[in-house]
């Protein structure tokens, strides 16, 4: 198949949507398909090239003044690639792929990564709409996407090309017992709840330390909160770390305290690392943790429950060992090859469903060669 992936950028900044797209594109190319990524670029072009994925510069923006150039660039891309499948990972790509071609010869697949955004409703324009969890699929069904056009493919990072052949970074030499979270510094990630929970824990376990791996617009607010809670000396804001595996390897407890989390890749990474995990019971978190078998689930926005769960894992060796072992069970479906196979199957099913329409278009674009053969 000839496949085009659309995303706003390909920057290595910890964006789960981009990471998942890069993994998928590389694995599809490895499987023998002709794959192109169209974006405004970033830090992943070298990796894409290594796997035989072509990157085409196609800035995508919601700004009305940029629409004409964006559509012109997209149609040039179509003329060059003539894809069977266009896979849009963000709203802008979904719109230009659905309405930007005069005669659409491809099927459009959209993946809903962040259904909590209002713009996620626009992903319904795909011929097939893929949700990253059952929770997201249920939300999209409520927004009017027919069940027959909905599929679910959970995110997975095991075997990711982004870390292939890359050794685990040197030890960050964490203080212990250590609590680690890897998350963007956004209010929805529940960092403030973790800090308040940690403040309670400091009274019970004075030697504990928390490491907040990530960056974002709300970092200054979170750092101020740590100061106000009197825990700044034990709360370590590391900033963005492209390869957080060393932090996961040394974590005594991994925490994801999100208020909204459709299908966090980091839970897969924490499970692969064998972390004892605490996460909030929201959106896709239970599914990523096998409904609580692979980690402790607590209500969102409840620092007390968060503190109690973390304390249990830090003080009860049996509970800690049990959770760490369970985290590494049933990881097969989180392998990037499994994710790739699932998407290729969806592509094929969608192509088959749209075959009468595509057959007419294919006939229209066939030409007769000089030797009389129809091509």
TrEMBL record:
GO function term, MF aspect, one: glycosyltransferase activity
InterPro entries, per database record: Glyco_trans_1, Glyco_trans_4-like_N
Glycosyl transferase family domain span: 178-325
Top-level division of the source organism's lineage: Bacteria
One Pfam family linked to the record: Glyco_transf_4
Limits of the Glycosyltransferase subfamily 4-like N-terminal domain: 15-156
UniProt-listed SUPFAM superfamilies: UDP-Glycosyltransferase/glycogen phosphorylase
Keyword Transferase: yes
UniProt keywords, alphabetically: Glycosyltransferase, Transferase
Range of residues in the leader sequence: none
Entry EC number(s): 2.4.1.-
The keyword Repeat is annotated on this UniProt entry: no
Name of this chain's protein: N-acetyl-alpha-D-glucosaminyl L-malate synthase
Origin organism lineage: Bacteria, Pseudomonadati, Pseudomonadota, Betaproteobacteria, Burkholderiales
